[in-house]
Amino acid sequence: MAIQTINPATGKIEKIFDEYPTEKVQSIIEKAHETFLNWREVPITERKKLMNRTAEILKEKRNHYGEIITREMGKPIKQASAEVEKCAWVCEYYAENAEQFLQREKVKTDASESYIEFDPIGVVLAVMPWNFPFWQVFRFAVPALMAGNVGLLKHASNVPMCALAIEEIFHTAGFPKHTFSTLLIGSKIVGEIINHPYVKAVTLTGSEPAGKQIAKLSGANLKKTVLELGGSDPFVVLEDANIDHAVSTAVTARLINNGQSCIAAKRFIVVEKIYDKFKDKFVEKMENVAVGDPMDEKTELGPIAREDLMYELDAQVKKSVEMGAKVLTGGKVLEATGYYYAPTILSELHKGMPAYNEEIFGPVASLIKAKDENDAVNIANDSNFGLGASLWTNDLNKAKKLAAKIESGNVFINGMVKSDPRLPFGGVKNSGYGRELSHYGIKEFVNIKTVWVK
Ligand code: NAP
Predict the structure, then answer these.
(1) Are residues 350 and 447 in the same domain?
(2) 206: Cβ below 6 Å to ligand 1?
(3) Residue ranges making up the domain that contains 17
(4) Which one in 115, 186, 219, 304 has a CA-CA gap of 20 to 30 Å to 157?
């Protein structure tokens, strides 16, 4: 894939970038390693100052960076600016807490003294997706840098301006030049980077196929990985739920980020007794969504990020319909300049259909009827993915019992699934492994070292 900015709202190429030649990539890896040798000695109080400065820059220029995000991947401008603001939050969170998370832990043993230290490991490669082009990078880079590691970013090929802007932000904040480096490269040479002895670990946020490839390449080199992959999150609505609240959240949870979020609700599993009521309200609300120019503050749904992804989405819908799914609303590419897809709800779904089995990355909701709550949980778990889940009922005791049965990295009761620096984030099954954020995230890329003194 060429490294270029194509505005998805217009379909126009805005900027083309040259891929970095191999020698440049090699030189950046070497400089990153040299930088690491100094950076790991820098006191955490100094790292903290730089991270707080990074947060200030993000807040000062939230609109500027928000516009770059929207131009490159099409999310509504309000959501893009909010994403930049959230990156400032993760900087402040780790500036505040990293020292405590990485504090030496004393353990009583047969030694006169024994303790655990958390040492940085070196250069960490991050292969990142376009859908949250700032947030995904910051939530990897901030804990990594605070722990004393250095970062290399291979961003998705359609968001090079975001990739370069992030590198510039860290440099402007005062981080030494190669503590964070962007590599403008395609995915073909990722294997060579993973092979490099100075690269100690890899984190990928992306699709299941990319995850399998990165795991294979890293496994062959015995390098640690964290994989944050796709999802097909269930949104389970039980009989005693507040239906109006559930429906309005369902629309937001499906359409946020133009429907292209790993933790977007994708399968709406509603118990029989309230299915029709939920369905009618859901269809009505989806039909009233403001679709249009993502630069317009009033827009709720913008374009799909790339033309190929729009046609892939349409093919998944068409195949599901050929197999018997019913289109309750939408179900088509919109006749407009840019890559717009209609807000869509499909029903009458069964196993084997793309809209039942696969990750649907766009504004398409799969509505599924369950007999009762146990059936709903079984359907929720009938997926290869296990990222997030949302459960709607007024009986909180029941909700907590059901939450324990749901196979996912998180369950949100009466709320939309979201990431939060204070809570661990990640999946089970084909949604990946490892955790980002919270104290769990910062400990993924450290050497948990035991020291025993006689
Ligand atoms: P993608 O196509 O898998 O790409 C992700 C990154 O991997 C890009 O930098 C891409 O580079 C690179 N890549 C792709 N194939 C590769 C390969 N064979 N070897 C090495 N690198 C490879 O995913 P995307 O379309 O950007 O993002 C959407 C996906 O990310 C969805 O599945 C979504 O659910 C998932 N996601 C997961 C989380 C989470 O936290 N679990 C968060 C956000 C998104 P190129 O662009 O150059 O191909």
Answers:
(1) no
(2) yes
(3) 2-229+431-453
(4) 219
30 and 161 co-located in one domain:
yes
Backbone φ and ψ for 173, nearest 5 degrees, come out as: -70, -15
Same domain? For 313 and 197 the reply is no
Quote the DSSP letter at residue 444.
Answer: T
Helix 44-60 vs helix 77-101: crossing angle, to nearest 10: 170
Q: Read out DSSP for 209-271?
A: HHHHHHHHHHHHTT-EEEEE----EEEEE-TTS-HHHHHHHHHHHHHGGGG--TTSEEEEEEE
- The pLDDT tens digits for 340-378 are 999 999 999 999 999 999 999 999 999 999 999 999 999
CB 58 less than 6 A from any atom of ligand 1: no
Task: Give residue-wise pLDDT tens across range 4-14.
Answer: 999 999 999 99
pLDDT, tens only, 251-284:
999 999 999 999 999 999 999 999 999 999 999 9
Task: Place 87 in a pLDDT band, splitting at 50, 70 and 90.
Answer: very high
Reported as half-sphere exposure (CB side, CA atoms, 13 A), residue 37 has a value of: 6
Q: At what angle do helices 62-73 and 160-173 cross, to 10 degrees?
A: 160
**Cβ neighbours for 374, distance < 8 A, ≥ 6 positions apart:** none
Which CATH number is 149's domain given?
Answer: 3.40.605.10
| CA atoms of 94 and 90, how far apart (whole Å) | 6
**What Rg value do the Cα atoms of the chain yield, rounded?**
22
pLDDT, tens digit (0-9, with 9 covering 90-100), for 204-246: 999 999 999 999 999 999 999 999 999 999 999 999 999 999 9
Strand duo 385-386 + 428-429: pairing:
antiparallel
Of the candidates 357, 365, 356, 346, which has an alpha carbon nearest to the alpha carbon of residue 252?
Answer: 365
Tell me which residue has its CA closest to atom 39 in ligand 1.
228
Residue 426 placed within a domain: no
| Res. 1: pLDDT tops 90 | no
Q: Are residues 190 and 283 in the same domain?
A: no
The catalytic residue among 262, 300, 358, 444 is 262
Convert the pLDDT of each residue in 114-155 to its tens digit: 999 999 999 999 999 999 999 999 999 999 999 999 999 999
262 is catalytic: yes
H or E element that contains 92:
helix 77-101
Per the prediction, the chain carries an average pLDDT of 98
Same structural domain, 102 and 77:
yes
162 is catalytic: no
